Amino acid sequence: CPRCMQCDTKFDFITRKHHCRRCGKCFCDKCCSKKVPLPRMCFVDPVRQCAECALISQKETEFYDKQLKVLMNGATFFVTLGTSDKSELMVCRLSNNQRYLVLDGDSHYEIEIIQISTVQILTEGFTPGG
Questions:
Q1: In degrees rounded to 5, what are phi and psi of residue 72?
Q2: pLDDT at 103 over 90
Q3: What is the pLDDT of residues 63-96, one digit of tens each?
Q4: Domains (range + CATH), the chain
């Protein structure tokens, strides 16, 4: 690729190209300067990523750090989907490739992790530290 895929800067001896470790596209140093861990692709140490991918990777990392133990083992939840008033008892777990939340009950759903914008943990009925 002769030019940055973000800002269209031409690559030369001074302006070198870099590959985002997540999407693989070519960028200049300014457009691909973020360094974030990418454990699901076996990059434990922070690696170079474009701004868009770095944001997604950071969200995934935060989500996995907070929820990984519960998600790998699976846990039972009452899930209310969309605008429904009815809650369904479902087992929620992380898929083997760690890209989807799998919800199993009477229904089966797979939700792509990068599509999740917020997670709210409700502790109603439990005492703190209990």
A1: -70, -40
A2: no
A3: 777 766 666 677 787 777 777 778 888 888 888 7
A4: 18-70 (3.30.40.10), 74-115 (no CATH)
